[in-house]
Design a protein that fits this description.
With about 120 residues, the protein is of the alpha+beta class. It contains five helices and two strands. It has a two-stranded antiparallel ribbon. Strand 1 and strand 2 form a beta hairpin.
């Protein structure tokens, strides 16, 4: 697990990683309950298998007094790009692209704030 998880994190996007973790918990529950021969177990196993198609790479660890310390991870299918992570201006990333996402992701909070303000105003 200590070696596989960092390679998973390099090769899978955030939403897939979250779903894979949820599926792992559900898989454990199915096994615990003795429901191995069910369509649900087969479906979860197929999902996990499909996520692992491009999960490969190398993980280096340092071992020290019973501890495992990650010392580096590489993968030919890594989704990490230093040029994007540093948010430098270039062909792949335009800083103005963030404006729409900030507005969209912030919309539920904006609506909540407006509703709370309206409720507070009506109390007075």
């Amino acid at each position: 697990m200590e070696a596989h998880s960092p390679v998973d994190e390099l090769g899978l996007d955030r939403a897939t990683m979250e779903t894979k973790k949820d599926m792992g918990n559900k898989f454990a529950q199915i096994v615990y309950e003795g429901k191995w021969f069910t369509p649900l177990r087969e479906a979860i196993q197929a999902f996990v298998k499909s996520t692992q198609e491009y999960v490969t790479g190398e993980v280096k660890f340092k071992l020290y007094k019973g501890n495992i310390i990650k010392a580096g991870t590489t993968s030919p299918y890594s989704l990490y790009s230093e040029s994007l992570a540093s948010f430098t201006t270039g062909e792949l990333y335009d800083h103005h692209d963030a404006d729409g996402f900030i507005t969209l992701f912030g919309l539920p909070l904006k609506v909540r704030a407006m509703k709370l303000a309206e409720l507070e105003k009506n109390k007075q």
